[in-house]
């Protein structure tokens, strides 16, 4: 597994990745992507003119909702793994 700038210690070869670390990385990375993409969308829409504060907020809420839905399943799987859920010893967390 590659290293992460904020979490420099890589997972050891031959061992299952730490689900807690993966969960933190998933959340951090998706927050970065959400911020960047929402700001790009707002900037593009602003350039067309007449974007209201309400519409701006709607775009931000939509971005947040999309991220939540896209990451819900992997986040739940990592949370189960972190808590020692079913199959944790045999299968390990899902690859990201």
TrEMBL record:
<dbReference type="GO" id="GO:0033014">
    <property type="term" value="P:tetrapyrrole biosynthetic process"/>
</dbReference>
<feature type="region of interest" description="Disordered">
    <location>
        <begin position="1"/>
        <end position="23"/>
    </location>
</feature>
<feature type="region of interest" description="Disordered">
    <location>
        <begin position="73"/>
        <end position="96"/>
    </location>
</feature>
<dbReference type="InterPro" id="IPR036453">
    <property type="entry name" value="GluRdtase_dimer_dom_sf"/>
</dbReference>
<dbReference type="GO" id="GO:0008883">
    <property type="term" value="F:glutamyl-tRNA reductase activity"/>
</dbReference>
<dbReference type="GO" id="GO:0050661">
    <property type="term" value="F:NADP binding"/>
</dbReference>
<protein>
    <submittedName>
        <fullName>Glutamyl-tRNA reductase</fullName>
    </submittedName>
</protein>
């Amino acid at each position: 597994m590659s290293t992460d700038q904020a979490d420099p210690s890589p997972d050891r070869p031959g061992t299952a990745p730490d689900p807690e670390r993966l969960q933190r990385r998933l959340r951090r990375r998706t927050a970065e992507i959400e911020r960047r993409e929402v700001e790009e969308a707002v900037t593009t829409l602003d350039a067309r003119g007449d974007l209201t504060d309400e519409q701006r907020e709607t775009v931000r809420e939509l971005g947040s909702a999309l991220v939540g839905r896209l990451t819900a399943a992997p986040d739940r799987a990592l949370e189960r793994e972190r808590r020692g859920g079913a199959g944790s010893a045999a299968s390990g967390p899902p690859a990201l």
